[in-house]
Specification:
The protein is an alpha/beta fold and about 210 residues long. It contains five helices and 14 strands.
Length: about 210
């Protein structure tokens, strides 16, 4: 399976066009969006644009996405929300959680309440691909190279469940890949001059990741 992973679109038409070009060029099986699809407005335009890419789209909300984004993801035929659910495509299991950390930035969306964390611990397995907006605390999460701004809840989930992969974004300064135990962490944010990550996934062996 070929997975095209992006995050932090922030409703930018140029970023949507860049995604569309890469979908045409690489022909991935699925588009995964790890939050911040919008910038508090333009919800229908963005989700409709993703739906029109012509492939399945799986997403979670980030801190700049209002609740209407989840409703729209469920309403369009090719898009779906991964929040607190599992979706299986071609035998690959995706699960996710919407939300963002409350510090160091003020956000409108926080999921770190213990019941949500416990529910996620029940969903994530060793064969899962976990999708979340923030990276785990201490991994691909340095802001301005000075301090960690990842999510301790995501770190706890990854350390306890060790999914094969975590797809995340949020921290624009730290795109790329890193290991947290057995989990391959991919920060696929669409920061300046970036276009996400193309992931060549196989049932066995190390996934290949090309940062675009």
């Amino acid at each position: 399976m070929l997975i095209y992973a992006v995050s932090d679109i922030h409703g930018n038409p140029e970023k949507l066009s860049k995604i569309r070009r890469n979908v045409v060029e690489h022909n991935p099986d699925v588009l995964v969006v790890a939050g911040d699809l919008t910038n508090y407005h333009g919800h229908r335009r963005v989700v409709s644009g993703l739906n029109d890419m012509g492939l399945p789209v799986l997403a979670v909300r980030g801190n700049s996405d209002l609740p209407v984004v989840d409703r729209l993801l469920r309403a369009f035929p090719r898009t779906g929300s991964l929040h607190l659910k599992e979706t299986v495509l071609k035998g690959v299991r995706f699960t996710g959680v919407s939300g963002a950390i409350p510090v160091p930035f003020r956000t409108r969306l926080r999921w770190i309440e213990r019941p949500v964390l416990e529910q996620m611990l029940g969903l994530v397995q060793g064969h899962s691909i976990l999708v979340a907006h923030p990276p785990p605390w201490g991994t691909l999460d340095e802001v301005m190279g000075k301090f960690h701004a990842g999510c301790r809840g995501i770190e706890e989930i990854v350390r306890k469940r060790q999914p094969r992969m975590l797809i995340c974004g949020h921290i624009h300064e730290r795109p790329g890949t890193a290991r947290l135990g057995k989990t391959l962490v991919v920060n696929c944010n669409m920061g300046r001059r970036r276009a996400g990550a193309m992931i060549d996934w196989s049932a066995s062996g190390e996934p290949g990741v090309e940062m675009l």
